[in-house]
């Protein structure tokens, strides 16, 4: 479903991704872990087309995201292609980024009405189901400022799902939450991961969550995936010294 093929990303002279190769199969839940500043968010931003690759290709659902054919060549994709491809991908960020002047229902229906052309009735019916799924049926008329951070994040999850993405990207979705609100958000994500066929690529420091829901965990360091294993293996018997060091540091801090 997702394939990075020799992806290089630089910011000026700073090489963040070095010929990065990895794949995520349809329906898989893959978590990326690794030191701060190693480029995990950059991977998600490239998928969201918020950044462009310097070299290499990215494929989503078998189709090239980054390039399109022109004659016999492949050339960097234009805005129209990127917009089309972006519709397949949803993202939930650390900051919830809800529209503050809209109520919860409007937050969830806005994009399907505008970008997918759904009628208000269709979009609302879908939103009601999604708000039920994230445990917020009773908050449809509330405004974001009346909700806790955990509730706002669950609205953000419903909003992303309302676009029916095939891929959902999660970037440190619990980092901005008070500790007591984290579990509710993770419970909702686990439910979605186990009951839908959405493909997940998740960046998190929540090692217990990564262990609990991931099909695979990729340890990312210095622009490359240095270890890729099922969670039971990666968390209990990592092969790479850098993975062991990283896990010790993170678990000591917890
Ligand atoms: N727009 C940008 N311009 C210049 N440098 C950038 C830009 N975006 C990211 N970087 C740099 O790229 C590197 C990777 O950043 P990225 O945010 O992807 O790391 P990360 O692994 O997600 O880190 P964290 O776990 O702290 O969120 C960092 O050194 C960062 O400073």
TrEMBL record:
Any Pfam family matching the protein: ABC_tran
Keywords: Amino-acid transport, ATP-binding, Cell membrane, Membrane, Nucleotide-binding, Transport
InterPro entries: AAA+_ATPase, ABC_ATPase_HisP-typ, ABC_transporter-like_ATP-bd, ABC_transporter-like_CS, Ectoine_EhuA, MetN_ABC_transporter-like, P-loop_NTPase
PROSITE patterns xref list: ABC_TRANSPORTER_1, ABC_TRANSPORTER_2
ABC transporter domain segment(s): 2-247
Transmembrane spans: none
Membrane topology qualifier: Peripheral membrane protein
PANTHER family associated with the record: AMINO ACID IMPORT ATP-BINDING PROTEIN, GLUTAMATE_ASPARTATE IMPORT ATP-BINDING PROTEIN GLTL
Name of the protein in question: Ectoine/hydroxyectoine ABC transporter ATP-binding protein EhuA
Species this protein is from: Amycolatopsis acididurans
Organism phylogeny: Bacteria, Bacillati, Actinomycetota, Actinomycetes, Pseudonocardiales
Gene: ehuA
């Amino acid at each position: 479903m997702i394939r990075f093929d020799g992806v290089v990303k630089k910011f000026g002279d700073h090489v963040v991704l070095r010929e990065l190769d990895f794949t995520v199969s349809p329906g898989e839940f893959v978590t990326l872990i690794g030191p701060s500043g190693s480029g995990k968010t950059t991977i998600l931003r490239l998928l969201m087309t918020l950044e462009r690759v310097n070299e290499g290709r990215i494929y989503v659902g078998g189709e090239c995201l980054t390039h399109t054919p022109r004659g016999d060549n492949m050339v960097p994709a234009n805005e129209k292609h990127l917009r089309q491809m972006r519709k397949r991908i949803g993202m939930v960020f650390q900051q919830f980024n809800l529209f503050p002047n809209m109520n919860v229902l409007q937050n969830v229906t806005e994009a399907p009405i505008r970008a997918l052309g759904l009628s208000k009735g269709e979009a609302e019916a879908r939103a009601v189901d999604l708000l039920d799924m994230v445990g917020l049926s009773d908050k449809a008329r509330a405004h974001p400022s009346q909700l806790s951070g955990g509730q706002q994040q669950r609205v953000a999850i419903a909003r992303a799902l309302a676009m029916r993405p095939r891929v959902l990207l999660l970037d440190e979705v619990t980092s901005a939450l008070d500790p007591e609100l984290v579990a509710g958000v993770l419970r909702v994500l686990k439910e979605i991961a186990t009951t839908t066929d959405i493909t997940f690529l998740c960046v998190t420091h929540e090692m217990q969550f990564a262990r609990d829901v991931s099909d695979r965990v990729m340890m990312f360091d210095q622009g490359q995936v240095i270890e890729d294993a099922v969670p039971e293996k990666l968390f209990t018997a990592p092969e790479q010294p850098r993975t062991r060091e990283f896990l010790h540091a993170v678990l000591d801090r917890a």
